[in-house]
Amino acid sequence: MKKIAIIGAGYTGLSCAKHLTDNGMEVDLYEKTNQIGGMVKCIDVFNNRIEKYYRHIFKSDKYVLELIRSLNKESSIKWYTTKMGYYSKEGLYEFGTPISLLKYKPLPFIDKIRFGKAYLKIKLIKDYKKIENVTAEDWIIKNSGKNVYEKIWEPLLISKFGKAKDQISMAWLWGKINLRSSSGKLEGESLGYYEGSFSRLTDTINDYLIEKGCNIFLNSNIQQIYKEDSKWIIETEEGLKKEYDFIVSTIPYNSSIDLFKKYLTEEEKQKMKTLEYTSAKILIIFMKKSFSNFYWMNIGDSSFPFGGIMEHTNMIDKSNYGDNTVLYISNYLYKSDDEYNLSKEELLKLYIPYLKKINSNFDEKDIVRLECFEEEYAQPIIKTNYSKDMLDEKLNEEGLYICTMGQIYPEDRGINYAIREGINVAKLILKK
Ligand SMILES: Cc1cc2nc3c(=O)[nH]c(=O)nc-3n(C[C@H](O)[C@H](O)[C@H](O)COP(=O)(O)OP(=O)(O)OC[C@H]3O[C@@H](n4cnc5c(N)ncnc54)[C@H](O)[C@@H]3O)c2cc1C
Question: Which of 197, 259, 316, 335 has the least CB density, counted as fewest CB within 10 Å?
């Protein structure tokens, strides 16, 4: 029987492991932290659990839904109709539905028509390759004018990509719009949440894999990986030494370059080095009073030091968190930015005047708990013609595969696509 080692136990690694074990393969998972789940990890709060990073799935997320179904946990996914808001210099508005667009005052009527026409045009595009060579900025300005770009799209691109906002491919925005519009209803967006937090799903996958005979090595520090004859050998700092036919790496590219230096071609290394990321710094505020009526609030005022607020308790009832409101303040930035290194208290201090601009009743005295988490490789920066720069999952060296967020395109990264790519790599191995 073929033996496979998967490095990294986020949802890409877990999905790959499940597909391989379901097909009778022998799989070992190596995870450097003390938990599996990667970016889906949770913390304990008020006798419950909650995600470090705000989390929901869409109705169109067929790979997540299939995974949940295959574990007989369909009834654990609940759907919620949520409201989206948009805070601009002119104030806070509901957004995301046709009626809210008509009521959106900062945009003159003629621009609403332009926005709507361009939106429909994007929805009618079938082949993203036709638009991957143009930036989202150029495409939007050409198809809906500068005002629509500056009032709606530019702040969103800034909030995800900062200074790289004018380099983002239209193919990325196309993928994002198609995903979000597929979950829309007239009265708001329908989003799914796993009962008791997504860590329950991670636990179920963990139990399933263990039952199938998969070994999961936590706190595992791989010291070296090398090839002897046609076999891959993994040695860990903990003294483990094991032999494999295939290796799948799901960890950030720079770590893969370090581990597999000897086995990568110059072109593969170049592709991995070329991809840049924004990092995420997420502040979670637990507080006594609610903040707004919106689950998801985009910040369209680029003078703000953060890009979005997700009021989790406008989707999941407060009673699950000791009757407290849960606010995620989302900030995509660069590791070199000063804010990346601020403590949670310093970050809150920076954000308070802006939170008060949105809701003048916001009072820090109502805060009962504060948490902050950061993710260095949070969002790949997808520039024009990315299909030419994207790394293949099967590498030149026999038996070596790399599968990460950087290979999700033209869709935006998300657990649905992590699961899809994990399965795709497993299928490539099964064909061997
Ligand atoms: C703020 C934020 C919010 C998000 N919200 C959503 C959402 O609402 N819905 C959604 O679908 N997606 C969301 N995403 C995206 C989603 O979380 C990711 O696309 C997905 O989790 C990526 O999974 P992965 O397995 O590819 O990577 P990761 O989750 O990063 O997993 C990689 C794993 O490898 C481990 N690792 C790293 N280096 C090593 C090493 N050297 N040796 C061994 N192990 C190693 C890591 O510890 C980690 O466990 C969000 C992301 C962020 C940052």
Answer: 335
Ligand 1 mean position to 383 CA, how many Å?
21
Rounded to a whole number of angstroms, the CA Rg of the chain reads: 22
Report CA-CA distances (Å) from 290 to 237, 238, 321. 48, 47, 13
Looking at residue 89, its pLDDT comes to 87
Contact 339, 279 (CB under 8 A): no
Asked if 30 contacts 221 with a C-beta cutoff of 8 angstroms, the reply is no
Q: What is the pLDDT of residues 332-351, one digit of tens each?
A: 999 999 999 999 999 999 99
Q: Which amino acid does the sequence have at 241? A: K
3-55+198-275+389-430 maps to which CATH number? 3.50.50.60
Q: Does domain 277-380 have CATH number 3.40.47.10?
A: no
Tens-place pLDDT, residues 242-259: 999 999 999 999 999 999
Tell the residue number behind the tokens 């409201």, with chain if given: 83
Domain ranges in the chain are 3-55+198-275+389-430, 81-188, 277-380
Tell me, yes or no, if the pTM score tops 0.90: yes
Q: From the alpha carbon of 30, which atom of ligand 1 is closest?
A: 43
The second-level CATH assignment, the architecture, of 81-188 is: Orthogonal Bundle (1.10)
pLDDT at 181 over 70: no
Contact 177, 125 (CB under 8 A): no
Average pLDDT over residues 392-410: 97
Residues having CB closer than 6 A to ligand 1 are: 7-13, 30-33, 38-40, 53-57, 222, 250-251, 255, 280, 282, 375, 378, 404-405, 413-416, 418
Q: Give the integer Cα–Cα distance in Å for 153 and 141.
A: 10
Give the phi and the psi of residue 73 in degrees, each rounded to 5.
-120, 25
Instruction: Identify the pLDDT of residue 25.
Output: 97
Kind and range of the H or E element at 347? helix 344-358
Q: How confident is the model at residue 183 (pLDDT cuts 50, 70, 90)?
A: low
